[in-house]
Amino acid sequence: MNKARIRWHILVFLAPAVIVYTAVMIFPLFNTLRLALYTRIEQERVFAGLDNFRTLFFDPIWAEQFWNALGNNFWFFLVHMLVQNPIGIALAALLSHPRLRFAALYRSAIFIPTILSFVIVGFAWKLILSPIWGIAPSMLDAVGLKSLFAPWLGKEEYALTTLALISVWQFVGIPMMLIYAALLTIPEEILEAGEVDGITGMSAFWKIKLPLILPSIGIISILTFVGNFNAFDLIYAAQGALAGPDFSTDILGTFMYRTFFGFQLQLGDPHMGSAIAGAMFAIILLGVCIYLFGIQTRMRRYQL
Amino acid sequence: MNKARSNPLNSVMMHGALILYTLIALFPVFVILINSFKTRKAIFREPLALPDADSFSTIGYETVMKQGDFLLYFQNSMIVTVASIFFVLLFGAMAAYALSEYRFRGNMLMGLYLALGIMIPIRIGTVAILEMMVATGLVNTLWALILVYTAQGLPLAVFILSEFMRQVSDDLKNAGRIDGLSEYTIFFRLVLPLVRPAMATVAVFNMIPIWNDLWFPLILAPAEETKTLTLGSQVFIGQFVTDWNAVLSALSMAILPVLILYVIFSRQLIRGITSGAVK
Description:
The structure holds two protein chains of two kinds. Helices cover 70% and strands 3% of the residues of chain A. Chain A has helices at residues 8-35, 51-58, 60-95, 103-115, 118-129, 135-142, 156-171, 173-184, 188-196, 201-228, 233-239, 252-261, 270-296; strands at residues 38-41, 44-47. In chain A, strand 1 and strand 2 form a beta hairpin. In chain A, helix 8 (173-184) crosses helix 10 and helix 12 (252-261) packs antiparallel against helix 13 (270-296). The radius of gyration of chain A is 24 Å and the shape is globular. Chain B has two domains: 4-62, no CATH class; 68-239, Orthogonal Bundle (MetI-like fold). By secondary structure, chain B is mainly alpha-helical. Helix content of chain B is 75%, strand content 0%. Chain B is built from 13 helices and no strands. Chain B has helices spanning 8-35, 40-45, 59-67, 70-101, 107-119, 126-136, 142-165, 170-178, 183-194, 196-212, 215-220, 229-239, 244-274.
């Protein structure tokens, strides 16, 4: 092929995607990181170096909110890792059983919460858990556990965990599907070989299937991590921008929204908002790097 | 053979566990839907009963139709979702074709650059996106949302589609070239129809997050005439917290379109996820 000729069609094919992606995603991302280094003094945008980050991490008023949101976010993530992913794996293990009837029906039904919007999920659970309506207390009453009921979303010590569990309820379908897909790729011969050696049922799951699906578990972990550290919608829909009661459900997403958009009497501050976005970016990047270089490369992969 | 794996007791327990979880998954949706058709009294007296002749009422829906402009919100959501998916598919397929078909300098690098966005959420750049939309006057227009969702969907679309385009036979494309077809004709007439299943997967993956998004409509297009259904129901419910009939009906009206879409596309969606397209 003639080397000097520019192949215009390659340019034409690439241009729209690259332009939109660069202009609306990559450029704003770096521009946000840049804005974090500025501040506003009397309507003027002035360069402030790392001052915003210093304020965010060390100024008593800001730091308290930031560490609270970060800590809450880690708890939110932990609940997902400890509840959502094990349940997802267990459901996938049941569904992938070779002679299970109605598997497709169960699969589609369990996936339904995942397709609903956070607004629907947030309000639906708010109504169900509401002490006014009384569905939750009367159901607990039916099994003799009425004393356990509390207005979970309204109590500081329970609200965050309750919301995390609601989010687990909503998203359990995703790990279920991905693990289910991974389990289907395990060849029957391997399982039969195990059976000949007397490895069946539960021990077949722990000793044969689980090691083989570890890479998929790694993928769902990092997806959960990225999703949780950029979560916002469910908390906003259920508890509002103030992430009540008393900021006990505040996570980085709601904190950033409040900061840069303002709420009630506080004016929005795009520069502090950018600083929070910068912190979120660093956390997500760190998580992705730990996954890519620390976990994924060390994970033993079996050739099937 | 396989005796241990087809024990009837095991099978009962498995069905038991799955049925239990299915009930947990569907119960809230069911409760919302049945109560939206009841009178206020019946909602509180017997929340778990099905509506009967006595308790049936559509008062909630009447309030919703009168107060909120749900038809407009629905239309906005529809326009944004369909247009975004169209651009994601068109631009994504074109870029994927360029990356998978031609060898040129920087091909690998371009592929990596476009893949960056798979892991990094676009929300991080919100402050600058808002500034840009204000500066260009796109704020409070549907275009702002369409642009953002297109950019958000492109990385994964390029990634998935280029995997599939590598599998399209070279002989076919070369035959087209010998017949004197232009590169554009080869792409649009020969290659695109062959990757249609992959495009459907990409479309279904993008559809739900776009339809359900609350963040960008809230920040970029909160005006009454550009509200999406998700934002519209959020605002509406916020205003009518004490009117249980209206809240339950608004929720049901927000659930139904997604549920219908899901029933139509669930096969495609599940096949897409389980075919390992996201690995």
